Amino acid sequence: MIKKIIGVGDGGSQIAKKFLKYYNYSLLTVSENGDIKLPSAKKAEDLEEKMLKDKRKWSKKLKTFAEDDDLLFVVNGAAKSTSTSLVLMEQVKENLKTVIFVKSDPNTINGTAKLQQRAALMVLQEFARSGLLQQLYIIDNIELEKINPDINILNYYDQLNDLLASTFHMINFCKEQRPVLNTTDNPVETARIATIGVFNVEDGERKLFYSLDFPRETSYIYILNDEALREPARLMKIKDINTNINTTEPSNASSFVIYRSDLEHNYGYVVQYSTMIQEQTLEN
Q1: Sign of the alpha-carbon torsion through 136, 25, 182, 206
Q2: H or E segment and range at residue 128
Q3: CATH fold of 4-174, please?
């Protein structure tokens, strides 16, 4: 389980702070008013250059926070601050690093931000493919909107960020728990580009937070209370759902893991992996 989170930029920091509702995570924010302060700059490349020049001012704080632990970086792809992610990661290159990359809806950002978002996504995917990142999770705000029908302009980012943080936290938290039944395996070494989502534990209907091209593996996480675990047909239903998925998506290996819960309701989460670079054929 990852217990240390670094929020990059105002957007990434706001998402990272949401995690504190669910667990006692250690948090470091890198933003204009954060624990590590970003200098002002008009362009992403200028911001990156300034961070490199001033690294003596902040690198010790980052390394002290990181120690030898696994790290989760949260970045907003369209923000200038995303350009500093690589500078930050270079200072903790020995740590295992996971990145949550949040894609803004292109209808809500300008042309410069669109170019920044695409460039950052390509670079981080190459980092993941080369093994410099443990995992890169791509999240699309458009997909989060579809899951949140009650969203409005005033609570837009607050609602999306909470959905993302709560879902990732539960998936992360389960890594420290002992499953009741587990058919999953570690994803193949090259499947380092991923997304997450939720699914209905009764019928298997899933809602992914990003549409991955050419998914290689999908893991379904069942969090069930005692009542559900005691249902005679529950395991058969789960196996039937899994068999149907493998039949309809033969190139995308499906597996499941079941955890016991004391919660009133049952929950389903999904992690999907790909070995392929995403969106590389799109035009700028």
Answers
A1: negative
A2: helix 111-129
A3: Rossmann fold (3.40.50)
- From first to last of the 284 residues of the chain, give the pLDDT tens digit: 999 999 999 999 999 999 999 999 999 999 999 999 999 998 999 999 999 999 999 999 999 999 999 999 999 999 999 999 999 999 999 999 999 999 999 999 999 999 999 999 999 999 999 999 999 999 999 999 999 888 888 888 999 999 999 999 999 999 999 999 999 988 889 999 999 999 999 999 999 999 999 999 999 999 999 999 999 999 999 999 999 999 999 899 999 999 999 999 999 999 999 999 999 864 44
Predicted TM-score (pTM) of the model is 0.95
Give the 3-state secondary structure of residue 167.
helix
Question: Cα(161)–Cα(144) distance, rounded to whole angstroms?
Answer: 9
Name the residue with tokens 């529950």.
234
Q: Domain 191-274 sits in which CATH superfamily? A: Tubulin/FtsZ, C-terminal domain (3.30.1330.20)
For the chain, domain boundaries: 4-174, 191-274
- What's the CA gap between 160 and 151, in Å, rounded? 8
Q: How many whole angstroms separate alpha carbon 144 and alpha carbon 112?
A: 23
